[in-house]
Write a structure and sequence with these properties.
The structure is a single chain. By secondary structure, the chain is of the alpha/beta class. The chain has two domains: 258 residues, Rossmann fold (3-Layer(aba) Sandwich), CATH 3.40.50.300; 41 residues, no CATH class. It contains ten helices and eleven strands. Helix 1 runs antiparallel to helix 3 and helix 6 runs parallel beside helix 7. The longest helix has 17 residues.
Length: 322
Amino acid sequence: MTNGNAVITPLRANRAPGQRWQPYIRDEAVRLMEFKRLPTPQAASDIQQAAARILGFGQDPAHDGQRTGLIVGYVQSGKTLSFTTVIALARDNDIPIVIVVAGTSVPLFEQTVGRLLEDLQVDAFDGPPRWLHVKNPDLGSRQIVENTITNWRNPNVPRAEKATLLLTVMKHHQRLDHLNNLLAGLDLAGVPAVIVDDEADQASLNTLVNQGRESTTYGQLLALIDRLPNHTFLQYTATPQAPLLINIADVLSPEFVDVLEPGEGYVGGVEFFGGNRQLTRVIPQDEIPAADNPLADVPYGLFGTLAPYSGRPDGLAGMARI
């Protein structure tokens, strides 16, 4: 298979202990890494191998079954790139349906969808579409979904002409209900799928469990899981406490957990709040405004945290550049 002038050879990812199956890294994942222009080939390989490991922990697409996994990453450590790579690998491994549940508000949802479409270059190439994106699908999307699944089942249709369904849905019970109504009328036996739940600790879990009831979004996610007899459900979050502490009998209780390693140059909580405080500045108590300590101007210590010291005794020269 070719991509521009490059010949892409399918690569079987390294198999980690506990994997249910062994995904291939093919043209879609390679194309994504080329588009992202990562600093080194090793950085790209690390992301691909990690995504293949995550997908391999999930349900083997050759057999019906359901697997739920929790993917934990530091804040701003590459969670979105991780699940985008998992989605690319889903196409590389002939998984015809990818569902992304994201955003509890319209701006957050649009932001995630926009980045996903850009990174996957959904509309960037001529020829047969690689992706068929449907945003907030409902019964009006039935024909396109049904036709795409039929093509995947047809051995006479060349692989390059089989588009992958990319269904993006806002994390809201009404939007999820529309998707469930769409899927309820389809024969999905033997049709593998991947579900990505972005920020899985927000709204997805049962917030009414102590009242013996099901919250609406949680109930719709359970219905979605029931609609897909062969799927992997991936919960992405930087705050995994709630998914880890729910009842182990809960359908959303993870069966496996994977921790993402941040890339080179990442700066996060360890650097700011660990033993090495080179990146932090402590503002003295007398510079903190309070009722008994009114401040007439910006505290000197705050200037020092926002701009580099210039060597001037007052340390304020750098503020002119902010």
